[in-house]
């Protein structure tokens, strides 16, 4: 069993003022200097440990960043107001006009929309590729390519990226490998396989209580300093900075992430096996039938399982909608987007989070109409949950 990323969080020792067991919350947007010269030096980036202004950084944001860097095994990190804040700032920092991006074709809908509709304004263009086929990725590389972008476990189809192979390609062609690890915190540690930049939407599993947005970029001192640079950093200049109060609350939730991930994974595996046994088309990386199962297995920190996300195909859009409405009515979970909550959440990805992707492309990548995406909750009694879902499926003639 590998517990390393969770141990790295557990082993941090950060006290508050007056001996508090939690670090004090920094409740200031600006900071005093004892001398005018130190202020100037801080502007010039020559001082370490001095705070200037909270859009640059704050003590609370640094505490959370430190814990997330420890989890991901990177030199450092910086937190953002949302996952999209983190993603857009990384992409705009790394790319200039004329640059080219290779992205997985199955990614978070917001990221897809940003690359498809927004960055072309700056003449930054993206090829969307089946990232599980390394030959296709290599063939798409041009002299203008700057980076490869993917998710460890992709949204919403749960394709598994072969991080080692992609990192090797990136190295050969002098590209950056940027990885969104939102679906598999603790379970996969992308930097150990050679990812240059690791991003999370903290909104999902890491915070885990569906009460706030948040994001993080984990990477080298050099890259994070570039992002935070007062004169040229995307984090600093685009302004999607996390608030200190939120950093403190997310930090508190982070400390139980390992327990939650173990439970999410256990529950999801239980349901996936049951659904598959009933002949439903079930996608879950923990199933031997999943095309990425073997890669996941070789990349995972085994203690945390295969994660809490699974999809089933119930045959049609109408059946998917009817099932989701009935499951909500029976209080099995909520018909809602997002993930990582204590309750199970379900949505039809085609109509919701992937609605930015044109229908013809959705069909092409296997995003069929009857798909329901589940974020499996922390249910104490998953057998009871299963029986309730089974009854809903029976009632709607989804199961024979
Ligand atoms: C939700 C999500 C994002 C975007 O994060 P926000 O916090 O909503 O901005 C990015 N990537 C993935 C995989 C996500 O699930």
UniProtKB/TrEMBL annotation:
List cofactor names only: pyridoxal 5'-phosphate
Residue numbers bearing the N6-(pyridoxal phosphate)lysine modification: 204
Coiled-coil residues: none
GO BP annotation list: transsulfuration
Spell out the InterPro entries in the cross-references.
Cys/Met-Metab_PyrdxlP-dep_enz, PyrdxlP-dep_Trfase, PyrdxlP-dep_Trfase_major, PyrdxlP-dep_Trfase_small
Question: Per UniProt, which keywords does this protein have?
Answer: Aminotransferase, Pyridoxal phosphate, Transferase
Q: Which GO terms describe its molecular function?
A: carbon-sulfur lyase activity; pyridoxal phosphate binding; transaminase activity
Which N-terminal residues, if any, form the signal peptide? none
Classification via Pfam families? Cys_Met_Meta_PP
Cellular component aspect of the GO annotation = cytoplasm
Family the entry assigns: Belongs to the trans-sulfuration enzymes family.
Report the PANTHER family cross-referenced here.
CYSTATHIONINE GAMMA-LYASE, TRANS-SULFURATION ENZYME FAMILY MEMBER
Q: Identify this protein by name.
A: Aminotransferase class I/II-fold pyridoxal phosphate-dependent enzyme
């Amino acid at each position: 069993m590998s517990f390393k990323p969770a141990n790295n969080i557990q082993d941090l020792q950060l006290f508050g003022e007056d001996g508090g067991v939690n670090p004090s919350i920094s409740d200031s947007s600006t900071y005093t200097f004892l001398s005018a010269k130190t202020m100037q030096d801080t502007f010039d980036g020559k001082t370490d440990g001095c705070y200037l202004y909270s859009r640059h950084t704050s003590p609370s944001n640094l505490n959370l960043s430190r814990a997330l860097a420890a989890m991901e095994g990177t030199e450092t990190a910086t937190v953002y107001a949302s996952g999209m804040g983190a993603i857009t700032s990384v992409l705009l920092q790394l790319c200039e006009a004329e640059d080219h991006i290779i992205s997985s074709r199955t990614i978070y809908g917001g990221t897809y929309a940003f690359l498809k509709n927004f960055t072309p304004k700056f003449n930054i263009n993206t090829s969307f590729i089946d990232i599980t086929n390394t030959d296709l990725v290599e063939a798409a590389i041009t002299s203008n390519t700057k980076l490869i972008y993917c998710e460890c476990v992709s949204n919403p189809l749960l394709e598994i990226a072969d991080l080692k192979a992609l990192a090797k390609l990136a190295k050969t062609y002098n590209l950056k490998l940027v990885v969104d690890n939102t679906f598999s915190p603790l379970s996969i540690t992308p930097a150990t396989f050679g990812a240059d930049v690791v991003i999370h939407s903290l909104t999902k599993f890491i915070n885990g209580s569906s009460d706030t947005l948040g994001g993080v970029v984990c990477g080298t001192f050099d890259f994070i300093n570039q992002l935070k640079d007062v004169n040229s950093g995307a984090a600093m200049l685009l302004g999607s900075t996390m608030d200190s109060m939120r950093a403190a609350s997310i930090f508190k939730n982070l400390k139980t992430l390992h327990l939650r991930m173990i439970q999410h994974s256990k529950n999801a595996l239980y349901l996936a096996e049951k659904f598959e046994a009933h002949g439903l088309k079930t996608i879950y990386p923990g199933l031997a039938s999943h095309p990425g199962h073997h890669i996941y297995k070789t990349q995972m920190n085994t203690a945390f399982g295969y994660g809490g996300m699974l999809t089933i195909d119930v045959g049609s859009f109408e059946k998917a909608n009817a099932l989701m409405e009935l499951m909500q009515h029976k209080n099995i979970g909520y018909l809602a987007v997002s993930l990582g909550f204590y309750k199970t959440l379900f949505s039809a990805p085609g109509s919701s989070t992937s609605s930015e992707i044109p229908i013809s492309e959705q069909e092409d990548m296997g995003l069929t109409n009857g798909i329901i995406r589940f974020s499996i909750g922390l249910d104490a009694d998953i057998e009871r949950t299963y029986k309730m879902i089974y009854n809903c499926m029976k009632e709607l003639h989804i199961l024979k």
